[in-house]
Amino acid sequence: MGRSSTPGEGTRPRVRHAGQLGWDDGLYEDGKGDAPTPDGSGSGDGDGDGGGHSEGGGGGRRAAGHGGRRGRPHRAGRTKKRRILRWIAFSLAFVILGTGAAGYLWYEHLNGKIRKGARSAGNSAAKKTAPNAAGQTPLNILMIGSDSRNSAENLKLGGSKESVGGTPLADVQMLLHVSADRKNASVVSIPRDTRVDIPACENPDTGEKFAAKNGIINETLRGGAGCTLDTWEKLTGVYIDHWMMVDFAGVVDMADAVGGAWVCVKQNVNDVPKPGVPGGSHLRLTAGKHKIQGENALKWLRTRHAFASDIGRSQAQHMYLNSVLRELKSQNAFTDSGKLLNLAETAVGSLQVSDEIGTVKKLFDLGMQLKNVPLDKMNMLTMPRIQDPEDPDAHVLPKPGAADKLWALIRDDESLDPKDRAKAKKKTPAGPKAGAPASLGVTVVNGTSGDGQAPTPGRAAEVQNLLKAKGFTEADTSTDPGSERTTEVAYPKSAGAQGRSDALSVAKALSMPTSAVKETPDGAGLTLTVGSDWRTGSTFPKAAADDSDPLQDTESVNGAKSDECMDVYWPYRQM
User: Fold this and answer.
1) Listed residue (246, 385, 407) closest to 324, CA to CA
2) Contacts for 537 with CB less than 8 Å, ≥ 6 apart
């Protein structure tokens, strides 16, 4: 995209493109109780001592004069010790019960502060990825940055009074994917100016309904965070488990709770309004590394003009998030209960989340999912894209081939690193010989509606005939429609290695890649589902030549690299 194409950043009567006020517009437009102690037990101890003095003295004299043994004073001493122990036990019980009750009240207090919403706005259609051999499933979380000014705190941090009451925009959108085995993770950003198909949505707060449309992805928040999630699922085919949303004030609070993060710029940066380009984050840093938090962290995350474009801003956000993870790991925050409690309380007040993770415990468990992911296996990138032919100066589209490959890797829970994929492929043992084609019963399903469009009529029968021509004479069609973005051959888990070999033989006959073969839970036999990627034709479509490595096709940041710095666009280098 090059330099920013923003035509202006005044008030926003309607959503058009990145020129609206958003994450980069001007920041400054104008009882504890004491437990009982044995000290209060004087009467009881005095009674015992009195008895001891009366009779123990005589006993003492007898012992001295006649060599007799000591009697009652010893029993009185034991009585006193027992009473002291009883008081200690009582005190401990009081403290334990008191702190337990306080802990429960604190926990319920935090739970009551969590702001929640429906996961979907009514059009979630993606399927969950099947569990791996160990029964684990990947985790996908949509992270949304809202530009809402509908609070005094947010208005103070950016925007004009005219923006109060307006529908917020989803100016920052990132998908966090954590692999099923928790050994690698990725974060993928979609630029806010991406034109996509937005499904029909109903806002859960207002009840307002919105028809399906083709529009800019940051408009999706009009239907609530669930509408943004539904749009992502429609675009990517990835099932998204949860969403989390933060506004300006929340970013500041979270940055303070974490203790800041290290960022770096190659040149001085001063992101202030320029002739013809109003607004700006007001980020001001000298060249080099800086630890930022609070409002400075917000300025960094909102800076777009000084980093040349919305794409540059995404890269800067990835740099910040990677630094936060490094900070948390270096501070042992995942095992330090004090830090975790502080982060939990801040997160509860800063975030809105989908219903399924709307408790402190679930948020805590969610955070712990990242604990064991090695930093060098954490990759952050921006969706590969091309200029939008309808508005090349302002909007972008997903890049055919490269973006499709990226979404397929996430759907299939494969590492974005090609070296990891190559290693995994080598580890896959050779299976038994596949059965003869004529002996294999294959059910063909028409799943061409996976992209949200109407299915191609008669498509299952067409592919069935292709299979029969290849010798799979037992191939049949299903009357039940399917829905897949990509064509796949599935075999039941109970069929094991033999089932995989049979499925691979079907894929090979149709010149499909081995990645199209999937293991599914028991309940169906060998099944070929024709996806929306193969609506017509007798030859399986080949992937675009440039889609082999998403990490090389776009801006990416690896979690283990701490020496990367942002380039500053030359008009914003003057201090």
Assistant:
1) 246
2) none
